[in-house]
């Protein structure tokens, strides 16, 4: 896996993945940024959410659950000192669908957390406390 990051002025950078997709990252105005994109640590948090949500949806599809939406809410805490690393991350999955089975959704979230999500497992091994929760909503 490869990626590049190029400075685009002030505190702004363009990151490009090996698959050719780009995202603009920027610092906050009080650090020379222009708020043109997410901060690098926000990208890391979003990556954890995307990695885990991908796993959850894949597992639910394989277990033939009729999912119509999956919304993942992430909340993180960071250390007060430099480096301001993540100390806690909580992922809350809101899974919407028809006749969803509680055990299947719980299993999908657990498997992502314990076995499949490389991003959250890596951060957990680095000392970040990562927790998960979920709720099921019935599709209209």
UniProtKB/TrEMBL annotation:
Pfam family, one: OsmC
Biased amino acid composition, Polar residues: 7-22
Domain of life: Bacteria
InterPro entries xrefs: KH_dom-like_a/b, OsmC/Ohr_fam, OsmC/Ohrsf
Region (Disordered): 1-35
Protein name: OsmC/Ohr family protein
């Amino acid at each position: 896996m490869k990626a590049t990051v190029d400075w685009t002025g002030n505190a702004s950078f363009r990151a490009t993945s090996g698959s050719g997709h780009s995202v603009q990252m920027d610092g906050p105005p009080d650090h020379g940024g222009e708020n043109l994109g997410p901060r690098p640590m926000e990208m890391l948090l979003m990556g954890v959410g995307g990695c885990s949500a991908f796993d959850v949806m894949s597992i639910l599809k394989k277990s033939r659950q009729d999912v119509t939406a999956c919304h993942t809410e992430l909340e993180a805490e960071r250390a007060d000192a430099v480096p301001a690393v993540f100390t806690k991350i909580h992922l809350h999955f809101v899974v919407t669908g028809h006749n969803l089975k509680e055990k299947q959704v719980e299993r999908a979230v657990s498997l992502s957390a314990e076995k499949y999500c490389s991003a959250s497992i890596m951060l957990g091994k680095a000392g970040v406390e990562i927790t998960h929760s979920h709720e099921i909503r019935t599709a209209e």
